[in-house]
Structures are given as structure tokens and as C-alpha cells.
Amino acid sequence: MSLGRLLPFIGFALIVALLVFGLRWNRTHDMNWVPSPLINKPAPEFTLPLLYDSTKSVSRKELLGKPWLLNVFGSWCVTCQDEHPVLMTYAKKFGVQLIGLNWKDDPDAAKRWLAQFGNPYDTILVDTDGKAGIDFGVYGAPETFLVDGQGVVRYKHIGNLTPESIARELDPAIARLRTERP
Amino acid sequence: MKRIVLIVVVLLAGLHAAFAIDPLPFKDRAEEVRFQKLTRQLRCLVCQNQDLADSDADLAKDLRRQVFQMMQEGKTDDQIKQYLVSRYNDFVLYDPPLHAGTWLLWFGPFAFLALGAAVVVTILRKRTRQPLAAVDSEEDW
Q1: In a 3-state reduction of DSSP, which class is residue A99?
Q2: Does B79 reach chain A within 8 Å, measured CB to CB?
Q3: Which positions in chain B touch A139 (Cβ < 8 Å)?
Q4: Which residues of chain B are within 8 Å of residue A32 when distances are taken between CB atoms?
Q5: How confident is the model at residue A123 (pLDDT cuts 50, 70, 90)?
Q6: Where does the pLDDT of residue B49 fall: very low under 50, low under 70, confident under 90, or very high at 90 and above?
Q7: What is the spatial order of strands in the sheet that A143-147 belongs to?
Q8: Are A139 and B88 spatial neighbours (Cβ–Cβ below 8 Å)?
Q9: Using the beta-carbon criterion (under 8 Å), do B46 and A137 form an inter-chain contact?
Q10: How many CA atoms lie within 13 A of A74 on its CB side?
Q11: d(Cα B87, Cα B100) in Å, to the nearest integer?
Q12: Which of A64, A119, B57, B112 is within CB 3.0–4.6 Å of B46 for a Cys-Cys bond?
């Protein structure tokens, strides 16, 4: 058989290969995932009131010096409820402080939610109108940001954290910060 | 009866549109047109096949309000787009800008076109070179 006759079959095989690649790609990649332009850039400025004491507030500046995790959540968010037990288990194991951003939520509903399921956060900031969320490029809770001691965003996870994603991505990212520290 | 059903359907359809567009205090028609044009070029991050003008998502409402507010502050369309791109990536733009990360997206189709043209040209050349040989056997194609 000449190469000319094989050509259509080679073409067909290539198209099948592309199809298989596409199917596999779709299975391992979330189509809604949008890479954050904030990675390795300074975290946006904010000054936000605390959930449990609205007379006090915390700003980005006050958090400089030590790395911190920012977890965006809301009592209205169904996936946050899935993520919540994972945070309860891992909050103390991360080795960095866990800050909650109560995003576009009613503070009283948030308090009830935390009273029912437990509070894994060291500090909870309130962003009722969602402005700080926009500055962080949040588009779907839950989202988690790792910010280093210099206030630079180092890692972002969109969607619920799972033991697998923590072991694969978040823990190594925190470990990298530790090796950098003088 | 049919007419009533039709009226109800039309009213319901209008209701949906009314929910998507929150009343913003535009000072004139020109500003409203500019707002509509701008939000049609921006993608809703939550329901990614909808533009910002069209989307009912809560975040889209917030972003529309943000766009409106920035227009009031006298920001240009480019500044507003830049504001969103710096937070949500090029992905918020329906029209992706040309840079190193997107050249495949821009020129890939032309590469495929060129590849197809090359295949067609080689096949045609082969055929014209041996016009009678192919007629001999039927399975030869």
C-alpha cells in the first residue's frame, strides 16, 4: 500500500486522538476555572470590619509580616458547606492563620451558620457589598488565597478545598513560603 | 384563549429582561447607550457564556454597578476594562487582546486553513500529473 492510500486513515487517527485528548482534558480541567492575574502580585488593599466585633476592623497592612490564608465564604453558598468540614479539620494543620472573608452575606446569617457548623477561622472579615471580593477577583465562593508575609498573593484555589487539593497544591505552597523565610 | 396565553407569555418574557437590568440612574440616553455597549463586551464570570449586560447573576449586578460608578467618575472605557482585567484576567473581555498567550487563538485557524490548502494543492497536482493512470483501476482513488 502506498502512503497516499494511508493518508485518510492517518488523518482519521489524528482526529480521534484530538477527540480523546479533548475528553480527557475536560475531565481533568474545570471549564469555569479562570487563572487569577493576582498571583505573585500584591494583594489588594482593604480595611474590613470584623464579623464578631463590627466596631473593629483589619486592614491589609496589619496582616503584613506573617503569611495568611484568605477563605471566601458565605452562608448562602452551598459549596462552602461542602468545604466546611475540610476547613474544620485542616485549619490548625495549615500552620498559618486562616482568615475568613464573609462575602456578600448577612452577618447574622453568617453567625448562625458558624454556630451550627463550627468556626474554623482565626479572624473573620465582613464584605457585605462585595467590593473587597471584586478587588480580589472573586467570582465564585468558596475561593482561597495564600498571601505571604510581604502581602503578595502566592496561590489561589477556586472552588472547595479537598484533602487531595490541599495535599497536592496548598500544603506545598505553604511549605515553599517556609523555606523562603530567613 | 390563545390570545391570553400569548399575552401572558410575552409579559413573562419581558419580566425576565426587567430582572436582568437593574434601574441605574443614567443622566441621558447617550450614557445609557455607552453603558450597554460596554457591558456587552464584558463576560459574566459566573455564567460564562453570558455578557455582563445580560446576566442575572448577583456578581454581574455588582460589576454592572461598579462599571456605572466608574463611568460617573469620568473613567474611560479602556480604564474600566483595565480595572476588570487586572482582577479577573483577559477572560472578562469577549474580544481577547493579542499577546504571546493568545497568538495560537488568533492565528491557529489560519494555520489550519493553510494546512488544508497545502493538502488540496498537493492532491490536485498529483491528479493532473497522471490523468489517465487513475482510470485504469477502479479502486485507485
Answers
A1: strand
A2: no
A3: 45-46, 59, 88
A4: 48
A5: very high
A6: confident
A7: A123-127, A97-103, A68-73, A143-147, A153-158
A8: yes
A9: no
A10: 18
A11: 20
A12: B57
Strand pairing class (A57-59; A153-158): unpaired
Residues 6+ apart with CB under 8 A from B121: none
Residues of A with CB under 8 A from a CB of B: 4, 31-32, 34-38, 104, 129-130, 134-137, 139-140
CB-based contact, B41 to chain A, within 8 Å: no
- pLDDT above 50: residue B18: no
Statement: residue A3 has pLDDT above 80: no
pLDDT exceeds cutoff 50 at A31: yes
Nearest CA in chain A to B45: A139
What is the sign, positive or negative, of the torsion defined by CA atoms of B132, B135, B136, B139? positive
CB contact under 8 A, A38 and B87: yes
3-state secondary structure string across B32-88:
HHHHHHHHHCEECCCCCCCECCCCCCHHHHHHHHHHHHHHHCCCCHHHHHHHHHHHH
Cβ of residue B127 closer than 8 Å to a chain A Cβ: no
In the predicted model, is pLDDT for residue B139 greater than 60?
Answer: no
CB contact under 8 A, B89 and A32: no
List the grid coordinates of A133. 471580593
The rounded distance, in Å, linking the Cα atoms of A5 and B81 is 52
What local confidence, expressed as pLDDT, does residue B69 receive?
Answer: 93
In A, minimum Cα distance to B119 occurs at A7
- The rounded distance, in Å, linking the Cα atoms of A44 and A42 is 6
Phi and psi dihedrals of B45, rounded to 5? Answer: -75, -25
Q: A142: cis peptide before it, omega within 30°?
A: yes
Task: Tell me which residue in B45, B58, B126 faces A34 most closely, judged by beta carbons.
Answer: B45
Partners of residue B58 in chain A, C-beta under 8 Å: 104, 130
CA angle A150, A154, A159 (to 5 degrees): 135
